[in-house]
Amino acid sequence: DYDIIHIHHPDPMATIALFFSGYKGKVILHWHSDILTQKYLLKLFRPLQTWMLKRSDLILGTTPVYTEYSKDLTRYKNKIETLPIGVLDQSAKYNIAFYEKIKSQYQDKKVIFSLGRLVPYKGFEYLIKSAKYLDDSYVILIGGKGVLQNSLKHLIEKENLSDKVKLLGYLDDEISYSYFKLCDVFCLSSIEKTEAFAIVQIEAMSFSKPIVATNIAESGVSWVNLHNETGLNVKTKDPESLANAIKAIIGDRSAYQRYAEASLRRFRKEFSRNKMAERAIEFYKNLLK
Asked: What's the Cα-to-Cα distance from 288 to each of 78, 80, 82, 284, rounded to whole Å?
């Protein structure tokens, strides 16, 4: 028998498996996000979700902001703690030859990088439109693929932004790390609470990059990127605000250096994989006392 079972949510099959397992020991429920888009699934799953919340001895959220505002967690505040996501520092794992190639390609540019699936909640159309408020010394590079690829490509063409915005398509790890290393600023333009944390932010932090992100109501995104410390957070769906934040960071070298240094410090203090593991082990020990 296990001493503790650590379940991740949303994962209905894991909850169902636990329900039928007959397991009587300690349970940790790791709440990554509410079920927001699959309303029909939630209607069917809600009784089991409620059972899981009551059954859990400890509920872990990835940020204190998300768990504070989640309506599903309102009755369970007394057993909620925070365990931020952690990742390995990959800042030395970039493709050297490819990095040198793109460094030469964009040597005269201020590079803004973004990475994610090309889906509606990522808000890439607003990042693309922000290029209208940036001069020709800037270039926006967007990595990833998804259902909006063609419509975003058409938007770039329609707005005559082909020289200032590039869709890079799918990037493997080494290539994405090369763009993280290259960029001056990482930008997260997401617009919905579906973006609960944004791991790409902490990946950018591991490369000591300032971040421009968005203030998404009830999301943990702006907790990860501390406003005026590791970067700037702006209102959603506002291309001009994104552009102004980008210019504010890049246009002030002393401020840029301050943001860059704070970004790396915050990564090492809060978001390294080792730090996540240390905290998780401490939760396990406390639960078994």
From this structure: 18, 16, 18, 6
Q: Where in the chain are all domains bearing CATH 3.40.50.2000? A: 4-86+272-287, 96-271
The encoded tokens of residue 255 equal 């401020």
Give the whole-angstrom CA distance, residue 130 versus residue 132.
5
4-86+272-287 maps to CATH 1.20.210.10 = no
What count of Cα atoms within 13 Å lies in the side-chain half-sphere of residue 205? 27
Dist CA 124 CA 171 (whole Å) = 17
**SS3 state at 61:** strand
Please report which helix (H) or strand (E) contains residue 231, including its range.
Answer: strand 231-235
For 191, phi and psi rounded to 5 degrees? -125, -5
CA neighbor of 9 nearest in space, from 187, 196, 186: 196
Which of the following CATH numbers is that of domain 96-271: 3.40.50.1010, 3.40.50.2300, 3.40.50.2000, 3.40.630.30? 3.40.50.2000
Q: What region does 175 belong to: left with phi over 0, alpha with psi -120 to 50, or beta?
A: alpha
Q: Compute the distance between CA of residue 220 and CA of residue 216 in angstroms, rounded to an integer.
A: 8
Nearest 5°: the CA angle 198, 164, 146 is: 45
Q: 194-243, pLDDT tens digit by residue?
A: 999 999 999 999 999 999 999 999 999 999 999 999 999 999 999 999 99
Look at residues 86, 87, 84, 78 and name the one whose alpha carbon lies nearest to residue 32. 84
Q: pLDDT tens across 64-99, in order?
A: 999 999 999 999 999 999 999 999 999 999 999 999
pTM assigned to the model = 0.94
